[in-house]
User: What shape does this take?
Amino acid sequence: MTAYVINGSSFEHDEEGYLKNLADWNKDLAEIIAKDEKIDLTAEHWEVVNFLREYYDEYQVAPAIRVLVKAMKKAFGAEKGDQKYLYQLFPYGPAKQACKIAGLPKPTGCV
Amino acid sequence: MAEVEAPKLPSGVRKKLMFVNRKAPHGTIYALEALEVVLISAAFEQEVCLAFLDDGVFQLVKGQNTQAIGTKNFAPTYRALGDYEITRLYVERESLAERGLATADLMPIVHEDPDDADEEKPSIQVVGRAEMATLMAEQDVLLSF
Assistant: This one.
């Protein structure tokens, strides 16, 4: 599969599932990507996804995990600005998985 | 595939790394590549700083807009460097002056100072050529882009 398909429209992604065109993203697409990642999006997931999109909008970069934790802490407090909390929501790597669902590129420096 | 803790050099060795930026931002890939390497290097817990000289000073000019050339405007990413604990961006005064630029033409870039109640401090330091030479001499590694 090289594209996500919604109602007959297809949206290209790379070999790891990251959207090729940032502008393609919408909430329905996020749900589809999340399903591929075996994640049911809850309000807590959306909070992170939306936060990442705002971060990207401001800085044009998908933050590394360490940076995400710190920025979340500042925005939502210590309980949510916490690596363990984020891993509970996104078990295969919060920065990586949440960025994918948010339609952002893979975080720079993420292997 | 899961993310891991930042790799550590043996016995917690910390080196002084300076990334030297000498080229204008959007005509070539140098500036963007340098920025990406800088972001990656931040994970290795080294003492990282950046230097901007020659046409490299244009990388920090405010109000950049790449729409007409159809490339990504990565200029806002310099403002995220503080989040990566990269807090020292040295800009050479002579390079600015030779290009008709002043400090006021540069983007405001700040970082939080953990030693001062997370007070926001400016990250850009304009230094003279002689001081830049001294800073370079103090580094363990210089990476030129």
Observations:
- DSSP finds three helices and seven strands in chain B.
- Chain B has a mean pLDDT of 92.
